[in-house]
Each structure stands twice: as C-alpha cells, then as structure tokens.
Amino acid sequence: MQYKDRRDAGRRLAGALDAWRGRSDVLVLALPRGGVPVAWEVAHALGAPLDVLVVRKLGFPGQEEFAMGAIASGGIRVMSETEGAWPVSERQLEAIVAREQAELERRERRYRAGRPPLEMAGRVLILVDDGLATGATMSAAVKAARTANPARIVVAVPVASVEAVQSVGALADEVVCPFTPEHFRAVGLWYADFAQTSDEEVDRLLSGSA
C-alpha cells in the first residue's frame, strides 16, 4: 500500500473517520507542516473546522530524523524511550530545545496570521499528521491538547509503525490508522510523492479553511 501524496492520504484517511462526519463538536487539528494537507482533506470530508497544533521534534545531533523527544505549545515536553540511544549532554539538549522552541513560536505566528486558536474545551479533537514513526511528536501533541479539557482526543494518521500506535494509544482516547506496515522504516516510504510541505502551502490551506 502506498499513497499518491498527502492529499490522497487525507482523503483515504477521512473514510476511516466517517463516524465523526457532520458533528458540530468535532475540531480537526493539524500538526504542521506535513500534517496540514492531510488534515485539510479530513476536515473538508467531515465538515469540521481546521486549526493547527504546533509541535516540534527534538532530533539527535547529527541524526535529526531520530526523535529523542518533542515539544508543543504550552510548555509541553515529551522524551521518547530512545533518548539514551546516543549520548547527549544536558547543555546540548537545552540548546536543541531552545532552537526548536524559537521555530515553534515562529510557526505559530505565521500560520495563525492573527487568528486566535479555536476553542478546544469540550470538543472531540482529531489530531492529524502524515504518519508516525516513533510517536514522540504526536505524544507531545496529545499531552498539549489534553490541557484544554477536550471531550475526546482521536489521533488519525494514514500510516504508522506498530510501536508508535501503541505508544500514542496509551495517551489518546482512540487511534485511527488504516495502515501499519510490519517493516515500517520511515513515513516517506509509503508515499509516492513525499515532497516537503512549504509554509506557503500551509498558509493557503489554513486561510482557505478559515
């Protein structure tokens, strides 16, 4: 199984979320940048509003694709079980956190463009990304969303590793993932087109949704 691109993945993911279609209490939250095209299709299919939940992965120095944790809005920090795979000093870690915090704040300013965050309390939140490898980023997102006192948190992704689904499933109320390949390796392998999502595309999709 392979998705054509993120928009195709979003349309197919929406089919697995049909139970939430047309409900006034549903809010779709995209993890930018790659989660935004997927989430736009989900929100469009469900007839739900779309917002962003900005999260930043904390990558190992020199091995940035491997997450040792993640941060999210509201001062949330989650460290993964693979944190000790490479030696990282406290000074190195704090430098990485500071850099990613600055980028998190930049993205929030840009993507919101002055729009206030949508109300999350008492709503069903559907958190969407383009895939889960370790689950660290989504775990931070779930913890951040939980502080808003939603009625339910549903994590929805087109593809994920079995381990990530289990990890995130321990935090979320529900995980919807149509495809969990046995030999996962990387999210991008399950897309024919996995080109990086640009800030401009995120701006366009969010402004259109608003």
From TrEMBL:
Pfam family, one: Pribosyltran
GO MF entries: glycosyltransferase activity
UniProt cross-references to InterPro entries, sorted A to Z: PRTase-like, PRTase_dom
UniProt domain Phosphoribosyltransferase: residue ranges: 9-161
Signal sequence, start to end: none
Domain of life: Bacteria
Protein name per its UniProtKB record: Phosphoribosyltransferase family protein
Originating species: Variovorax ureilyticus
Upper classification of the organism: Bacteria, Pseudomonadati, Pseudomonadota, Betaproteobacteria, Burkholderiales
